User: Fold this.
Amino acid sequence: MTPVPRQLHDALPRFAARDRILVALDFDGTLSPFVDDPQAAAPLPGSVQALRELAAIPGVFIGYISGRPVADLSRRVQPPDGAMFVGSHGAEIDLGAGKTAWIALDDAEAAELADLRADLARELAEVPGIRLEDKPAGVVVHFRQAADAHGGLAVDAARRVHVRHPRAKMTDGHQVVEFALRHASKGDGIAVLRDHVRPDALLFVGDDTTDEDGFAVLGPDDVSVKVGGGESLAQFRVGTPQDVESLLSDLLTLRREVDRCSVTGR
Ligand SMILES: [Mg+2]
Assistant:
């Protein structure tokens, strides 16, 4: 585990000291290290524990934001009670306590999605190691288990399909290509969480290109952290999910101190 970078180390105490804070995290590549089989992805135990303990402190709210469907995400992250979920890149939102914001497709969109899926299945039938995943508002082409050359073929095929289905938004992710008929983004999801929680400040940690939509909606009091390399709008950067584990553990220590002071100061 590498130490949390110096500048982020300075920003965390300010964040932890705000009355209401929202801690929002991506899952794959952020809480969970990448694995060949997406079905085997699991969060690092230190992050699970830190988020459980953070959630138990007054004024701390936890949100998970992922391209995965909410049903899969909520099962996988081992969330604390009261956690909120943004799934399918913002197309599905679960605010906890039975409050769900589903984005249902209209009939024309549903028909377009069915055509798009059939078209992808035809184009990709001959490419080994490809898996299609159905989402409530789209479909995802996974090629993490394909050889590099086959991954390239899959992207080419996806682009050809996109030309025939221009209403769908196509997004390149980490060894995935996603098509969505509803153009929600992680930024839209974060905006819904923010409206619901009304935090004084928000922390968002993510690793993928789709997380940039989340970084883009953060304000001057918020803290944005990119995991890994590549261009990013985020203010800060860490290297790996293990570093996220360190960051959450540091945040927990800081917030506990704030909580202890506010209790003894009463
Ligand atoms: Mg990710």
The pocket of magnesium ion is lined by residues 26, 28-30, 206-208 (CB under 6 Å). Helices lie at 6-16, 45-55, 70-76, 107-124, 148-164, 186-197, 212-216, 241-264. The longest helix spans residues 241-264.
